[in-house]
Amino acid sequence: MKLSISQKLITLSVLSVAAAAFSATSFAAVDAAAAQALAKKSDCLKCHAVDKTKKGPSYQKIAAKWKGKADAEAKLIEAITKAPKVKLEDGTQEDHKVIASKDMAEIKNVVGWILAQ
Ligand code: HEC
What distance in angstroms lies between residue 94's CA and the mean position of ligand 1's atoms? Predict the structure, then answer.
């Protein structure tokens, strides 16, 4: 298929907007679809939603809490791999769920996705 000049310009501007959006985030390599799939598989979404409080805080709330903190990634990796005791919204306590992956790249991808909400 041959593109007209205006189609080429549109393609170029779409690409540059995408590039700008990409470089604006510090978690540029986040694969949101993979992160959501792993969160779903790990039952995280039973207690967390992106934008509303369930048994646990929303991912937006968690991202806001950790925004700008240098140790955010390390702390969240701990939270989802070491099963710390957490207090649910209903006041009961239980061991936090552990993510269903041992692959650090996948775990970091989920953490990056949460922090990007
Ligand atoms: C049984 C409910 C429940 C499940 C399932 C659950 N969480 Fe949580 N999660 C919580 C609660 C409650 C907190 C709040 C802990 C607190 O603030 O003390 C929390 C906190 C967190 C935090 C923030 C920790 C912090 O220090 O700010 C992250 C990140 C998180 N969860 C991710 C996940 C992921 C990823 C999964 C899936 C592997 C998951 N959660 C599964 C209830 C749950």
Answer: 10
